[in-house]
Specification:
Elements: H1 2-14, H2 19-35, H3 39-52, H4 58-75, H5 78-94, H6 98-118, H7 123-143, H8 147-163, H9 167-183, H10 187-204, H11 209-222, H12 226-242, H13 246-262, H14 266-282, H15 286-303, H16 306-323, H17 326-343, H18 346-417, H19 420-474, H20 476-496, E1 502-503, H21 504-521, E2 526-532, E3 540-542, H22 548-559, E4 566-575, E5 578-585, H23 590-599, H24 607-623, E6 628-635, E7 641-651, E8 653-654
Parallel strand pairs: 2-4
Antiparallel strand pairs: 1-3, 3-8, 4-5, 5-7, 6-7
Helix pairs in contact: 1-7, 2-3, 3-4, 3-5, 4-5, 5-6, 5-7, 6-7, 6-18, 7-8, 8-9, 9-10, 10-11, 11-12, 11-13, 12-13, 13-14, 13-15, 14-15, 15-16, 15-17, 16-17, 17-18, 19-20, 19-24, 20-21
Coiled coil: 356-449
Domain Signal transduction histidine kinase internal region: 447-524
Signal peptide: 1-21
């Protein structure tokens, strides 16, 4: 069934014809193909005919795409060759040949990426083809549960479709991204992208918004927010009443049944499951009907009505087996076996348990095959990336040689025009300037890496000191728990230490782990929140461990001396072309902390803050954009210290850079 959903997604990118209109177009194209007078026309028409078969005939789609590919290669029609590879990719998806599909799509990607810089009058067409290719690669990766790769290509496609202002496709990509995040159980992110899709649907008046709203309600159910889920379901129902969509309405009734069952309203749950079943059977949709029957069977089993439960579960299994939905077969057969076992009918219980085991084995085998395909696809993509890098290096070497030859020619031309002394002076000055600029850039890069490396031992030193004191103060069991959290934090820190920049979400993950560690150490002396502006894209990045020293100082020098329940807030926001990172605490304040340090017998030198200031200077030198930190005391209306606010103004940078 997942395969059917994949085809539906691909259809959003490829076609919008009815079957009747498609047949007329196909007949017209085949007629034109017979009369084509040039090879260029033939190649274009072969691709057009191939695309028309995407709905129902992968063999013919592949046949015409292969003819288009052969002709395009012979005549060096690069754009038509790229389209042929794209059509081959879709044909392979329909035939469940995912590795071959990926090879075809990446070949199309290579061609369109090469054509894009050279395109002039047809640049928009090349961009559209490249965007479709990125989206299709994302779908293939998602189908094989390769979610990281899938998101990578969805975001590439999203960028191009946003530039083209194709809102209808942008909202579908948002939905696809939401589905990937839901599969990864990242429900907050899934909700974020479903809401982005819904905002566009409401803006353009898209009647399919009810499906997105149902998805949002399902996320709320998964997050155990039943009241928010009900609001979404009721809104979706009102839209379905205005714009008929039988399958969408059936899914909504099933979702509402789950809501009522979860909230203990079993009669209402039963009513909605029956409504869903009626809708699905009305359109002969056995996938949805199978789910409705299973929900009803489980509900009757919970109520002790075993006769009805068996009736509905058997029918659910029968439908699921007929259409090849093994997950539903497995679930229904397991429930049937357990019901027969309760009745003491061990013969029937064994029969259905064997069916359950058979379905489970089939699913495991399918998953193993999928894992093998995923590994093969990863290998192909990595090999492709290496080949592209080698090709890029080769082109760069040729370009450098051409530049060098051109400079030499210019040198001799100028030599005949200007005086020898002037030429020597200019050439020497230019070379020295180029060398200086190169050295400055390299120095900035190395200094950035060196400062980051200084942070690691400092951070490890502080954490080990904390563990030492924690063992003395709290005993072995608490220390083991603390050490477990510390090991997780160190693993993240070591992973991030290889990078100059990491995504903001990774920095947030590291901060959250560190704050949880310190909460444990100081016996929940403080609470914390970390917020992120919804406008911040997933690939926006900052240098690793940049905020950790400020958070550490907020705890040790702001909250610990206060000896009362404290609060730390960390916020990431966008302001124009700036990334604003704010760390706020309600401790004793910066001035009071500084005063206590001066009066202290042993004054601790804050290496971390000094290193961080240097890192900000390097960021500013490297990006040529302002990068600074501001520290201020917050004063209450009574004139008392309300804590400290630290604001980092950073240039926007991206992990993909």
């Amino acid at each position: 069934m997942k395969f059917l959903k994949t085809l539906a997604v691909i259809a959003l990118f490829l076609f919008n014809y009815t079957a009747f209109a498609q047949n007329r177009v196909l007949d017209s194209l085949l007629n034109q193909l017979d009369k084509a007078s040039t090879d260029k026309q033939k190649a274009e028409l072969l691709n057009a005919v191939s695309s028309e078969y995407v709905e129902n005939n992968p063999e013919l789609m592949m046949l015409y795409a292969q003819k288009a590919l052969k002709l395009s290669k012979q005549k060096n029609f690069m754009k038509d060759e790229g389209k042929a590879w794209f059509n081959l990719g879709n044909a392979n998806i329909m035939l469940s040949r995912y590795t071959e599909a990926l090879k075809s799509f990446t070949n199309a990607q290579d061609i369109f990426e090469k054509l894009l810089p050279e395109a002039s009058d047809k640049k928009d067409e090349i961009k559209a083809n490249l965007a479709k290719t990125y989206g299709s690669i994302g779908i293939v990766c998602s189908e094989q549960n390769n979610y990281a790769r899938s998101l990578e290509y969805y975001f590439k496609a999203l960028k191009l479709y946003k530039e083209a202002k194709q809102q209808e496709i942008v909202l579908r990509l948002y939905n696809n991204i939401g589905i990937v995040y839901k599969a990864q159980k990242e429900y907050d992110k899934a909700l974020e992208y479903f809401n982005k899709a819904l905002a566009i649907q409401k803006e353009i008046g898209d009647s399919s918004s009810a499906i997105t709203i149902t998805n949002i309600g399902n996320i709320y159910l998964l997050e155990n927010k039943p009241e928010e889920a009900l609001v979404s379901f009721q809104e979706a129902l009102s839209i379905f009443n205005e714009h008929e969509n039988k399958r969408g309405l059936g899914e909504l009734y099933n979702a509402m049944g789950q809501y009522y069952e979860k909230t203990g309203k079993y009669v209402r749950a039963e009513e909605n499951y029956y409504k869903g079943l009626t809708v699905f059977e009305d359109v002969n949709e056995k996938y949805g009907a199978s789910a409705s029957l299973a929900y009803l069977g489980d509900l009757y089993a919970a109520k002790g009505n075993n006769t009805k439960a068996l009736e509905y579960l058997k029918k659910s299994s029968e439908y699921a087996e007929e259409i090849g939905v093994l997950e539903q077969v497995k679930s229904s057969e397991k429930s049937i076996s357990e019901l027969y076992e309760k009745k003491g009918d061990y013969k029937q219980a064994l029969i259905h348990y064997k069916k359950f085991e058979k379905a489970k084995d089939s699913i495991n085998n399918a998953e193993n095959i999928k894992n093998m395909v995923r590994e093969e696809m990863n290998y192909e993509m990595e090999r492709k990336a290496e080949m592209q890098k080698a090709e890029a290096d080769k082109k760069q070497a040729i370009y450098n040689e051409e530049v060098k030859r051109h400079n030499q020619q210019m040198f001799f031309v100028v030599l005949f025009i200007l005086l020898l002394f002037g030429i020597v002076f200019l050439v020497s000055n230019r070379r020295q300037l180029k060398k200086t600029l190169t050295l400055q850039k390299e120095l900035a890069e190395y200094e950035q890496k060196a400062l980051h490396l200084q942070m690691n031992p400092h951070f490890v030193f502080n954490c080990l000191g904390s563990i030492s004191s924690f063992i003395v103060q709290n005993g072995t069991d608490s220390a083991i728990k603390y050490l477990s959290k510390f090991s997780k934090l160190m693993r993240l820190t070591l992973e991030y230490s290889k990078e100059s920049l990491i995504p903001i979400d990774n920095e947030i993950e590291g901060l959250r782990n560190y704050l949880e560690l310190e909460q444990l150490r100081f016996n929940n002396l403080f609470e914390f929140t970390i917020t992120k502006d919804s406008d911040i894209e997933d690939d926006m990045a900052i240098p690793p461990l940049l905020l950790q020293p400020f958070v550490e100082n907020a705890i040790l020098h702001g909250l610990v001396p206060k000896k009362e329940k404290g609060v730390i807030k960390v916020d990431f926001a966008l302001h124009g072309e700036k990334l604003i990172c704010t760390v706020t605490d309600n401790g004793i304040g910066f001035a009071k902390s500084k005063e206590m340090k001066v009066n202290s017998v042993t004054v601790h030198k804050s290496m971390a803050l000094e290193i961080t200031r240097k890192r900000l200077e390097v960021i500013q030198a490297f990006t040529s954009k302002t990068s600074k930190v501001e520290i201020e005391d917050m004063i209450t209306s009574e004139g008392q210290s309300g804590g400290t606010r630290i604001v980092l103004n950073l240039p926007i940078q991206y992990a993909t850079n």
